Amino acid sequence: MAWDFETEPEFEEHLVWMRAFVDDELIPLEPVFDGLPADEWRVVREHLRDRVKARGLWGAFLDPRLGGAGFGQLKLALMSEIIGRCMMSMTVFGVQAPDSGNMELLAHGATDAQKERWLWPNLRGEISSAFALTEPFLAGADPTVIGTTAVRDGEDWVLNGRKWFITNASVADIVLVFAETTPEGRPHRHASVFVVPAGTPGMEIVRDIGTMAHPDVAYGRPGNHAEIVFRDCRVPGDHLIGGPGDGFVLAQQRLGGGRIHHAMRWLGQAQRALDIMCERAVSRTSHGQILGRHQMVQDYIALSHMEIQAARLLTFQTAWRMDRHGPGPVRAELGMVKAHVSKVVLAVLDRTIQVCGALGYSSDLPVEAWYRSTRFGPIGDGPDELHKSVLARTLLARHTPVEGWPSEHIPSRRPAAELKWAELRAAAGVA
C-alpha cells in the first residue's frame, strides 16, 4: 500500500495561503483575544470569514453536493494541520465543533425543508448549534443507553431528561438533542435526534460547567460546556431529523472524518509546541551550555519530532484509505488515530512545558493553556480506551484459534522445515 506524498500545485497554493493567513492574521491576536469586545470580534470575524470564503476554503469538510469543496479527507487533513496552529482558526474557516459535526448529521438526515431552515444557515455561519448526547448519570461513551426521553403527543414530541457537558449550548441557536423514542429498539434503534431552538419553553440551560481549561467559567462564553434540563419540552413533529430510531445511525455521521480533522489539528498544535521547545533549547543556557546540548533535552526534541511525524503518517494513511473506501472499512483505524494522536500531542506539550521550566508552566507562554484544553482529547469523542478496545477486537477477529501448540511452535514446525529443505536441495541440484 502506498500513496503519493505530493499535492497538486493548485492545492499547494491553498495550503501556502492558509499558513500565511493563520500565522499573519490570527496568531498575532492570541495575546489579546480573550479580552476583545464580543460585538467588535463578530464584525472582524465576518471580515476574516469573507476572505476564507473568497478562496473557496469555507466549510471545506462537506461534500460538494452539500455545499462543501469536495477536497477529500487527505487534503482536509493537511488543511486541518494548519488550522490547528491557532485555536480561533476553526471558527474562521467554518470547521468548529460541534457545528461541523452537526452539519454532517443534518446533511445526511434532514429533509430539504429542514436543510433550508437549519443546515444552510449553519453552514453560512449565520447560526450556531450544539449536540446534546452525554448525560451526567449514564456513561457518555455508551450512546445505546439514554435517559432522556421523547414521547409523541399529537403532532408534537415532548422531551424530558438531563444532558451535560454540551459544548456551546449556552450560546447556540439550535440544540440537536439525542433522546429515546422507541425503547423496544435497543440498543441501536431506540433513539432519535431532535432540533430544539434556543429559548424553547422547557429547555433550561442550567449552567456552564467549570473545567480544567476554564475553572472559573463565565456563562455564555463560546466553547463552554453546559448542563441542560428538559422538562416537558415540546417541539413540533417536523423537528425530528430522520425517523424515530434513526438517532444512532445519524450520530455516526458526525464521526469518521471528524476524527481525522481533530487529530491533524492536534498535530498542528504539537508542531507549534515543538517549535517553542526548540527555540528555548537554542536560547537558554544551563550549567555552562545551551539547553539543546543537554542529552535529556535532545531526547525530548528528537522523541517529539519522531512521534509527530509518525502520527502524521498514520493519520494521512487513514485519510487516504477513507477517500478510497469510505468510513466503514476504516472504523478501527479512525479510532486508532484519535487515541494515538491525543496521547502524542499531550506528550509533546508536557515536554515543552518541562524544557521551558517555570516559563512554560506560566501563562506567559500559550503551552499551559493548550495542555489544559487538550487534556480533554483522550476523553471526548469516545474515550481512548473504547477506541483501543474496538481496534483490539478488530485485530483479534482476523485470527483463528488453534488447538495444541501455537502455529509458530518451532518443534512442531521442524518436520515441515526438513521436507521444504529436501525439496529445495533437489530443485537446486544439490547431490
Task: Provide structural commentary.
By secondary structure, the chain is α+β, with helices and mostly antiparallel strands. The chain is built from 13 helices and ten strands. The strands form three sheets. It has a four-stranded mixed β-sheet. A four-stranded antiparallel β-sheet has the order 2-3-7-6, with no helix packed on it. β9 (285-286) and β10 (289-290) form a beta hairpin. The longest helix is centred in the last third of the chain and has 31 residues, at 295-325. The two termini are 42 Å apart.
List the helices and strands and how they pair.
Blueprint: H1 9-26, H2 38-54, H3 73-83, H4 89-93, H5 99-109, H6 112-124, E1 129-132, E2 149-153, E3 156-167, E4 174-180, E5 191-197, E6 203-208, E7 225-236, E8 240-241, H7 247-252, H8 257-283, E9 285-286, E10 289-290, H9 295-325, H10 331-361, H11 367-374, H12 384-396, H13 410-428
Parallel strand pairs: 1-4
Antiparallel strand pairs: 2-3, 3-7, 4-5, 5-8, 6-7, 9-10
Helix pairs in contact: 1-3, 3-8, 3-9, 5-6, 8-9, 8-10, 9-10, 10-11, 10-12
